[in-house]
């Protein structure tokens, strides 16, 4: 693969989407148009699956059914969008990827981590990001911020669920410190400086220079 694959992770309301947009803008200033996608979704099939997963109509979903639906959306997105873009040498930015399933369905729902790993591997075909940001957030603050426009099915989970998700992300970062960078809470500007600093060397590998201050 000749491109670079960067993912953004974290609890609800952690500010991933803002940071991903800032990185996309820095890339554009550097003359590189990134491919930006989000999970669940990013394809026609994935967006339909997203409606089932996050819409209000499917409160009866079991944890295993939920696992397979997130994985189905990911399998489609990986095959249809992410792999072809990376093969073409593009920079791909993804708002959530397989680590979300480990954190939410594995740690949050308590599904067997071996099962989650196997399902993730099947969905990604073994593709792993070159760099993953985990933006830390205090669950109460994050869920309150994310639910402001009306909570989705995941945001309506109890706070203990979101605490387990946070612990899950900490474990993921500890297990793969090279790939996964845990970024402490801070102002949008402070977090962005850290994101830019960490992304710069990974992008340099394919000759893309955003500068360590992202400018
Ligand atoms: P979204 O509206 O995209 O929220 P966010 O801005 O927080 O990413 O909703 C995605 C929700 O789905 C979020 O609560 C996390 C959850 N999720 C999982 O539980 N497992 C997964 O594999 C993915 C990709 C997301």
The strand line-up of the biggest sheet is 2-3-1-4-5
What's the number of helices? 8
Average predicted local confidence, pLDDT: 95
Number of strands: 5
Instruction: Using the coordinates above, name the CATH class.
Output: Alpha Beta
CATH architectural arrangement: 3-Layer(aba) Sandwich
Low-confidence stretches: none
Measured by DSSP, the beta-strand proportion falls in: 5-15%
Largest sheet: 5 strands, parallel
Count up the domains: 1
The H/E string reads EHEHHEHHEHHEH
CATH topology: Rossmann fold
Question: Structural class of the helix and strand makeup?
Answer: alpha/beta
C-alpha-based Rg, rounded:
16 Å
Write a concise synopsis of the structure shown.
Helices cover 53% and strands 12% of the residues. The chain is of the alpha/beta class and 215 residues long. The longest helix has 25 residues, at 63-87.
Description:
- With 215 residues, the protein is of the alpha/beta class.
- It has a single domain, classed as P-loop containing nucleotide triphosphate hydrolases (Rossmann fold, 3-Layer(aba) Sandwich).
- It contains eight helices and five strands, in the order βαβααβααβααβα.
- The chain has helices at residues 16-29, 44-54, 63-87, 98-108, 113-124, 139-146, 159-175, 188-204; strands spanning 4-10, 35-38, 91-95, 131-135, 180-183.
- A five-stranded parallel β-sheet has the order 2-3-1-4-5, sandwiched between helices.
- α3 packs parallel to α5 and α4 (98-108) packs across α7.
- The longest helix has 25 residues, at 63-87.
- It starts with a strand and ends in an 11-residue tail after the last helix.
- The model has no long low-confidence stretch (mean pLDDT 95).
- Bound molecules: thymidine-5'-diphosphate.
